[in-house]
Amino acid sequence: HKVIFSGIQPTGVPHLGNYLGALRQWVKLQNDAAPDTRLLFSLVDLHAITVRQDPKQLLQWKNESLAMLLAIGLDPKRCTIFHQSDVSAHSELMWILSGQASTGYLGRMTQWKEKTANEKENSEKLKLNLFSYPVLQAADVLLHRTTHVPVGHDQAQHLEFAREVANGFNHVYGQDILIPPQTLVSPAKRVMSLTHPVSKMSKSHPNPKSRILLTDSDELIQSKIKSAVTDSIEGVTYEQDRRPGDLAADLANISMRVLKEQVSSAVTKLVAPIRERHESIVGNESLLDDVATLGAAKATESAAPTLLQVKRAVGLCR
Ligand code: TYM
């Protein structure tokens, strides 16, 4: 049977890139799933602390992000929704898998190179958990015997690495213990920034106008799209290299102004019901606590057999 696993960092309110690139697929996979398909979705708080976080802020973001997973339509009866740090097996497996992770491979990962580009001369500032980030991500998926991982395009390299780690482990210990998972890249694989259309939309960009949050009001969405960077070439075409701020063929003869109005109306229609559900859930602490407690228990149970098999294979226990 299929096991679907994916994760999102609770480092702020999820944006339209997260939604179109990943979260919307999660809900679709849930709704279309066969009865024997298992689904797990994690708020990866341990990944979040690979950059410095304010503790109070992080707690609030964990809560808001959990509420958002419910608001988009994930059902805790159907899926296991949990905070990564509630399930210590993730960290344990990560340590063991570190024995399969070459520092050369990790050093070539795009995310590491991008995040460290400015710190090259100052390795005192570069921390180990940012470097080993992909090993924890590999542990996340391998721990639950995941077969399919729905993500945006920026995560494809990390999952390639996870397959490498799984195959390496199986090879060394001579058994098919870990399952190399398939990557499911969503159709909207890379949603771009509104202010800098050659980069992806991201939670960490300093300009809040670069992204649309799933909690933004209609007016805010309209104003962000109105001020979005476009080029001044007439007509609308899709040429990613020459015109990264532009799109599609059935809009060929409309102006940028009309295009922006159409995009605003499509996006506000998509976001409004999510925002409203989020508003009604986010203050309900007892509901969110119940969901997190149930998710932690289910994920702990799901993780146990693989961790035991791995520890046996390595000679850490009988
Ligand atoms: P994160 O939190 O950066 O993003 C969550 C999901 O949103 C997708 N995404 C995008 N898709 C399209 N366009 C964008 N602009 C955009 N920005 C983000 C991401 O591809 C992702 O699917 N390392 C992961 C979290 C993680 C994980 C895992 C994922 C940890 N363990 C195991 C899958 C399996 C991350 O930082 O995602």
Mean pLDDT: 94
Q: Which percent bin holds the helix content?
A: 40-55%
Order of helices and strands: EHEHHEHHHHHEHEHHH
Text of the CATH class of the largest domain: Alpha Beta
Question: What does the radius of gyration come to?
Answer: 21 Å
Structure write-up:
The protein folds into 2 domains: 3-191 and 285-314, 3-Layer(aba) Sandwich (Rossmann fold); 208-278, Tyrosyl-Transfer RNA Synthetase (Orthogonal Bundle), CATH 1.10.240. The protein has 12 helices and 5 strands. The protein has helices at 16-32, 45-48, 55-71, 89-97, 103-107, 110-116, 128-131, 133-143, 156-173, 218-226, 256-282, 285-314, and strands at 3-8, 38-43, 80-83, 148-151, 182-185. Helix 9 (156-173) links the parallel strand 4 (148-151) and strand 5. The two termini are 28 Å apart. The chain binds tryptophanyl-5'AMP (TYM).
Give a quick precis of the structure.
The chain has helices at 16-32, 45-48, 55-71, 89-97, 103-107, 110-116, 128-131, 133-143, 156-173, 218-226, 256-282, 285-314, and strands spanning 3-8, 38-43, 80-83, 148-151, 182-185. It is mostly helical and 318 residues long.
SSE topology sketch:
Layout: E1 3-8, H1 16-32, E2 38-43, H2 45-48, H3 55-71, E3 80-83, H4 89-97, H5 103-107, H6 110-116, H7 128-131, H8 133-143, E4 148-151, H9 156-173, E5 182-185, H10 218-226, H11 256-282, H12 285-314
Parallel strand pairs: 1-2, 2-3, 4-5
Helix pairs in contact: 3-11, 4-8, 4-12, 8-9, 10-11
The structure holds tryptophanyl-5'AMP (TYM).
Residues 5-9, 17-18, 21-22, 44, 47, 137, 140-141, 149, 151-152, 154-155, 158, 190-191, 200-201 line the site of tryptophanyl-5'AMP (TYM).
